[in-house]
Design goal:
about 170 residues, alpha+beta, NADH Oxidase, 4-stranded antiparallel beta sheet, 6 helices, globular, binds flavin mononucleotide
């Protein structure tokens, strides 16, 4: 089977990770795939903020959890690494650009045997005071909004791709 097609077909969201860390060289490949994504008018105003310290990831999860009133089980699924995708709030294509970059990273991670999951909640609370203060400590510019995050790590169990709705494809010949 075509390698790209096979990679796309076998990727699935992973929500349970082992404690194994991701090699820096693998993380760099994943991020490199992200920056090679398309962006509207090629603006590339995005920022890929990569956390691999468990203290920082869980500290950020706590800030998001408290901003949204979620319970203690909310922990971004305890990933080995977290990529916070943000973009200039004045770029009206910033959110979709971040989505393209996230999918590139998911596919690259999958190719390396690393699981991934989109984590969305920081999108709605990135301007909460405590969340913003952590983002600032990570170097995220204040004019950036968070548009999605990638939880990355080695899957703790079997990952089964979901059925997809092929009826959504409509050729108009
Ligand atoms: C815009 C967007 C937001 C998502 N937010 C979350 C999320 O906050 N938490 C989560 O566990 N999964 C999240 N997901 C993952 C979806 O639930 C998942 O992609 C979907 O169930 C299909 O499964 P698959 O990725 O295994 O194909 C999100 C996906 C997208 C595209």
């Amino acid at each position: 089977m075509n390698k790209v097609y096979e990679n796309i077909l076998t990727r699935a969201s992973v929500r349970s990770f082992t404690d194994k860390a991701i090699e820096r060289s693998d993380l760099e490949l994943i991020l490199d795939a992200g920056v090679h994504a398309p962006s509207g008018m090629n603006k590339q105003t995005w920022r890929f903020t990569v956390l691999s310290s468990q203290d920082k990831i869980q500290g950020f999860a706590k800030a998001v959890r408290e901003a949204l009133g979620r319970d203690e089980s909310y922990n971004f699924y305890k990933p080995a690494a977290l990529v916070i995708m943000s973009n200039d709030r004045d770029n009206h294509l910033g959110e979709v650009d971040c989505a393209c970059a996230l999918e590139n990273m998911f596919l690259m991670a999958h190719e390396l045997g690393i699981g991934s999951c989109w984590i969305n909640q920081a999108n709605v609370c990135c301007d909460d005071e405590a969340v913003r203060s952590m983002l600032t400590s990570f170097g995220v510019p204040v004019n950036h909004r968070v548009y999605g995050m990638a939880a990355l790590g080695y899957a703790a169990g079997e990952v089964v791709p979901k059925e997809k709705n092929k009826a959504a494809i409509c050729f108009v010949d």
